[in-house]
Amino acid sequence: MKTLILMRHAKAQHISSDLTDLHRSLVHQGIEDAKQSAKKLIKHELKIDELILSPSTRTIETAQILKEELGDQIKSWSVQERLYASDLNTLLRIVAEASKKTSTLMLVGHNPELDEIAEHFLHTPHHLKTGELILFKFDAQSWNEVAKQKPTKVLFHDEF
């Protein structure tokens, strides 16, 4: 059994002439939303073997809040450049490359890419708002199998 959790970064500053997209920080509401999402993960006693995030400031800050709230429930985390401004195929490759020992993988990233991978598994349109989670469970032995499967269970943000 493999569990994939997608989380869109929490609410961030707007782009301005002196602030690039990559360097936008979380706003107060974003910090609170990230804490609420962390509480949802704690409530379901989810242990995250591997958390992968994009190099943007807002995803790093979101992941730091998750780490502060979940503590050792997050075993490892890494920043991957290719998660920023990517596409569906790149996200599917990232998932497929996860270690076979990883039972629960979490991606913290951006739209439209996260919407695309969610829609890939749901076979229907879906929109992740900032700070939202979606969880997929798969009856798979390896992450390479996941891209070709339909999830056996889906938890939407409001269902956590």
From TrEMBL:
InterPro entries: His_Pase_superF_clade-1, His_PPase_superfam. The active site is at residues 9, 81. Substrate binds at residues 58, 81-84. It comes from the Bacteria. This is Phosphohistidine phosphatase SixA. It comes from Sheuella amnicola. The lineage of its organism: Bacteria, Pseudomonadati, Pseudomonadota, Betaproteobacteria, Burkholderiales.
